[in-house]
Amino acid sequence: MDAGNLNDGELAAHLAQVAGRILCEVRGSGVFSAEALGKAGDQTANQFLVRALREQRPDDGLLSEEQQDNFERLAHARVWIIDPVDGTREFGEHRSDWAVHVGLAIDGVASVGAVALPGLGVVLRSDAPQPLPALADRPRMLVSRTRPAREAVAVAEAIDAELVAMGSAGAKAMAVVRGGAEIYLHTGGQFEWDSCAPVAVAKAHGLHVSRVDGSPLVYNQSDLYMPDLLICRPEWATRVLAEVAALSA
What we know:
Elements: H1 8-28, H2 34-56, E1 61-64, E2 78-86, H3 88-92, E3 99-106, E4 109-117, E5 122-125, E6 140-144, H4 150-159, E7 162-166, H5 169-178, E8 183-186, E9 190-191, H6 192-204, E10 208-210, E11 225-226, E12 229-232, H7 234-248
Helix pairs in contact: 1-2, 4-7, 5-6
């Protein structure tokens, strides 16, 4: 493959897939203790992704969870936002609910993205959307497997949703895309790399994406903290937003 001929969507998918393959090799090598595995995966995948993007898109900005932010990116309209291992804990525990995020924000909008789920052998991408599966009769809401947000639990009770615990943000967002749930509501705070690629992919597949007050998600900001987000089937967006608003009324 000549990566120099790939468009943005193809490049994002290719890099996410290769990084996922590298991570599976690192995890399967058997040379790291459980404590060291997560850090080894983060560093190895980050080095590959950063070097690849600087080679293939030298004029774009770049933001990675695993690299110090120098704010040079703020001068760019196009900024790649990556999370080499989203769900380091799950990766280190040999679970499947971890992901690789390669996203591109253009003028603050999550415009291109690929999310690899290497444990499942899947790459979901914004440039190749698939039809959404049928809705479940009872909605399923994804929450953190270690610290479910109070607001998500309250909304789930209000709409009689089944709570589904899962690891990384990317894995949860892609579960909605793949039909494993209808709603991913998060109010516990994240950073731009946690959601840029998943939001681009979810949006391309026709899902609703926003802050929990309905406002848009804006990327490549000086402050990387993103307090909340909602990724859900469009059929549930109005109801979920209303329930969140009622909690703070």
